[in-house]
Amino acid sequence: TLAERANLAGVRHIVLVLSGKGGVGKSTLSTELALALRHAGKRVGILDVDLCGPSIPRMLRVQDSAVHQCDSGWVPVFVGQDKAIALMSIGFLLERPDDAVVWRGPKKNALIKQFVTDVAWGDLDFLIVDTPPGTSDEHISTVEALRPHQLLGAVLVTTPQ
After folding, report:
1. Worst-scoring range by mean pLDDT, 10-19, 49-58, 92-101, 120-129?
2. What does the UniProt keyword field contain (predicted)?
3. pTM for the complete prediction?
4. How many domains does the chain divide into?
């Protein structure tokens, strides 16, 4: 729909960060990539779709922040002294940052779609999408929801083992 496209209309490039397993550093790489792009003068956002382990708010020291609503959806949390990195994560929607999310597929898929369509990102050069470990429903839902928005590509994080 038109409203869905509007929230990502100002995003020039979308990059997924994926891996086949957990604990390989996807969230660290997503965070470092965002910081490096920001350091290079780019406008950056991070969409944390790791619903069961949203660690990016803690990595960027904004885990106590709250997400607010505006006319076009959720306003992401802005990180840093210059408020230069926009971040959306389920971590902001939990009662306590360390709460576990135990949901079945349809509810997870609905939240991912809502994150893609209902966050007011504004103008960004890059949106980094941090995904959960594995190759599950969440990945398919994320790619399906982002399909109309011309993904730039993906970074696949692997380990030497």
Report:
1. 92-101
2. 4Fe-4S, ATP-binding, Iron, Iron-sulfur, Metal-binding, Nucleotide-binding
3. 0.86
4. 1
